[in-house]
Amino acid sequence: MNLNGVETNVLLSKPYTWGTVAWLASWFNLILAILFIIYVGNDFLFGTFRRSLLDGFSRNQLFGAKLSMLTIFAIYVVVLVSLAAFIATPVLKSTSSFFVSYKYVLVLFVQVIGYLTFAMLFVVLTRNISLSIVLYLLYFALIEPIIRLFLPDRIAAYMPVKIISNLTPMPDFLGIMANQFSLDQQNVSDSTLNAIRGLNDAPTLIHDVGFAIIYIMFFAAVSYYIFRKRDF
Question: Higher-confidence residue: 185 or 170?
Fold first, then answer.
């Protein structure tokens, strides 16, 4: 596609490739979280946890197994996204180009962990698959956005969904287009280019990842506490 002289395929060229791929992959995180809710919820529904305890497994082992599977889900996403991008994106065929900005896929790994640990908290808390899915989706789409409306912007920016979902932001289309403009041909001044590049300024990636990891640890700790105390 060509929009006013700017080719959109630049979004899949170096160094934007992995940022665009990670953003596209993040669209499916909610679906993955729902699948994980069903996976864990089935163990409550069919009494698998109870039978496992009777067979001699400890609660620590059972909870650790779910965390291990959660991690496998996230690794699977990274592998699948990397393979899909490698097959579909010619610029990645060169080994020298493959890992340029690959950090965005690693950040996607953290994001998937965040979505799944949050999902696990809901299903461990309710022990009901349908209720967990409804509450999870409502929190993402309605509850937290409403809460953020009543909070100062500085505080709202640190809410869990806001932090985790922002780990893979939409590509900076305006900034990327600005980099493609020719100053001679387009007669765009330096000040205009700088203004365009500054439109989508956001907290640093390290800042967001740090807070996301804190939330992940919090979700896992609360889930573990509930898992330890609940009767099956």
Answer: 170
